[in-house]
Amino acid sequence: MVGVAGKSQACNACRQKRLKCDLTRPSCLKCIKSGKACTGYSRDLIFVNRTPLDRSITATSVLSERRAQQQQQKGGTVNSNAETELHLLFSESSHDNEKFRKHAIKILEATYLPKQLVPSNSKPETNEGSFSWVYYLTDLTEPSKSLDTSLFAFCLTQLHITGTDQVSLYECLEQYNAALQHLSSDLDDLQKRSQEETLAAIIVLSTCELFVCPAGGGWGVHARGLAEIIRLRDPETPNTPAWRHLFSRLRIVCTLDALTKRQARILENNIWHQIVAESGFTGPLDEVYTIISDVPAILEQAVALPSIDDLDIFSKKSAVIIQSVLDVAEAVRSWRDEFCKPSSKPHAWLVPSSVTNPAETGLSDKMFPLCFEFESLGVAVPIVMCWSVAAQLYSHVIQIFELAQTRLGRHITLEYILAQVNPTQAGAMNLSQSSNQDVLIPAVDDVQKRGTEMAHCICQSLEYFHRIEMGTYGGHATTYPSWSARQYFRLHAGHERERLWLQNLHKMEGPGTRWGLSLMTFADIIKSLSDLSG
Predict the structure, then answer these.
(1) How many beta carbons lie within 10 A of that of residue 9, not counting itself?
(2) CA-to-CA distance for 531 and 493, rounded, in angstroms?
(3) What is the pTM of this model?
(4) Which of 40, 84, 355, 460 is most buried, with most CB under 10 Å away?
(5) What is the Cα–Cα distance from 383 to 337, expressed in whole angstroms?
């Protein structure tokens, strides 16, 4: 017997999103108005093996069994009544927030959080992978409508994007907006504003936004709110374990927002630096963020270079910025090399890739036939962060070099520019290039090779993060790395194939992986520094 998959008359796009379709053919107007391609009204045919011993079998039951099998393959462990129970506990959260928050964490363990990294009923001892803050939400016991509504919205979002339960995007956005309203009220209240629950609400919302908001505008608002909480925090307030883990996450939110916007205002707070010093975290990822803490300020100065008219001031400023960028890039490289020192078990190694990218359809060779395997997620996150920051740093060295060459109107070298930092070194630099190889002043071609290598490493790491066992956190963890690689390939010539490969990332397929999650993307850098000068 042959059955049709589904009885809805809506187009496939509206049916998948559970939207009311106007049924216009061949393409519905709702899809056209939203600027998305209508995928039509065709339905897959399902073969149903109905036998005399099993007359009740239908196309619907076959589809239900298939969905159950797919969910089992995804590793989901949320029961079919997850949404119902979540709604019930949320409605009672004003009376028993502890029970609601514990149930919410269980849902996030089955959907968002990486699997098998933390034993059941325990908390990670470090901020491995930047997700440990989730477990410490159960330490927060004060009533907080903003926290509970934020957590409710986040759980609904995870149930929606993983297909674990029948949750619509509209319901996710409705609760997300409600959480924003509660948070706004709490921030206006002097007492509530200083509570850890309010800080946690901002962090939950900023993470939720990765999955429901296409652009990162909200992150800037949250980063400013976080900075205000830091500014108003009483220095005598004790740093609880929950606070330290929440602070580790807020540091990531603010730093990534500053890196992608190339603005350092949020990170130039003395109280911020004091809390960083007192936080007590010494994990690998925290060490990386400490090394790169000055990068947004350096990039902000780089963005201002095209506006400098005086050629002498421009040259000296360019030299100082390039030297600062190269110093940080070298510090990042040194940390990574020390972290990845050969041991009995390597931290990262290359294996054959098992995924396909539609951008390579019809091509005889893959752009990245090998991908990175990592010892653990706690190793992968800081290493890939190093690659991502390095790619952004090397990109800016190239951009400043091209800008300087355009402004000076002649062929120059990086050595020539760097001599402007200390002109007395110019003669020694020229001599050292031919007689002393210990003085390493990279040529711009070397910087381009390093930048390309870092961007390629990022691409080769993405398959690891998109494994099903990484939860939706895996895709979340690639938001900045993907952005960094994309900017490098966009702003520098000769990388069209890599750019198209990243552009089709959401369409990739491969066994044991999950792609296609609609995640927030940071805004692209529209023009390189040399283009801004023009």
Answers:
(1) 10
(2) 13
(3) 0.79
(4) 460
(5) 10
Q: Which residues contact 62 (CB under 8 A, 6 or more apart)?
A: 3, 46, 48
What would the pLDDT profile of 56-88 be if each residue is shown by its tens digit?
444 444 444 444 444 444 444 566 677 788 888
Cβ atoms of 124 and 135 closer than 8 Å? yes
Residue 35 neighbours by CB distance under 10 Å: 6
| Cβ atoms within 10 Å of 259's Cβ, excluding its own | 22
Q: What DSSP string describes 292-359? A: TTTHHHHHHHHHHGGG---HHHHHHHHHHHHHHHHHHHHHHHHHHHHHT---SS-SEEEEE---B-GG
Q: Quote the Cα angle for 125-130-133, to 5°.
A: 65
Neighbours of 93 (CB within 10 A): 23
Name the nearest CA neighbour of 102 among 127, 121, 80, 129.
121
Q: Which residue has the tokens 């504003």?
A: 193
Q: Where in the chain is the domain with CATH 4.10.240.10?
A: 2-74
In whole angstroms, give the CA distance from residue 262 to residue 527: 13
Contact yes or no for 480/252 (Cβ under 8 A): no
The separation between CA 309 and the C-alpha centre of its own chain, rounded to angstroms, equals 37
CATH of 2-74, one of 2.70.50.80, 3.30.930.10, 3.40.50.1860, 4.10.240.10: 4.10.240.10
Task: Read off the amino acid at residue 196.
Answer: E
Helix (H) or strand (E) holding 374: strand 370-374
Over residues 96-150, the pLDDT tens digits come to 889 999 999 999 999 999 985 544 455 655 455 478 889 999 999 999 999 999 9
Give the span between the Cα atoms of 118 and 109, in whole angstroms: 10
**Residue matched to tokens 């093996």:** 49
Closest CA to 327 of 421, 430, 425, 445: 421
* CA separation, residue 321 to residues 265, 291, 350, 448 (Å): 18, 16, 35, 17
Task: Report the pLDDT value the prediction gives residue 394, as an integer from 0 to 100.
Answer: 97
For residue 74, the SS3 value is helix
Let me know: does 49 contact 76? Beta carbons within 8 Å.
no
Residues 6+ apart with CB under 8 A from 54: none
Residue 149 parent element (H or E): helix 145-162
Instruction: Please report how many Cα atoms fall inside a 13 Å half-sphere around the Cα of residue 526, on the Cβ side.
Output: 1
- CA 534 from chain centre, in angstroms, equals 32
Spatial distance between the Cα atoms of 90 and 145, rounded to a whole number of angstroms: 10
| CA–centroid distance for 184 within its chain | 25
Rounded Cα–Cα distance for residues 447 and 458 (Å): 17
By the 8 A CB rule, do 50 and 20 touch? no
User: What is the three-class DSSP state of 514?
Assistant: coil
Task: Give the whole-number percent of the chain exceeding pLDDT 70.
Answer: 76
Please enumerate in sequence order all residues whose Cβ is within 8 A of that of 9, keeping only pairs 6 or more positions apart, or say none. 21, 23, 41
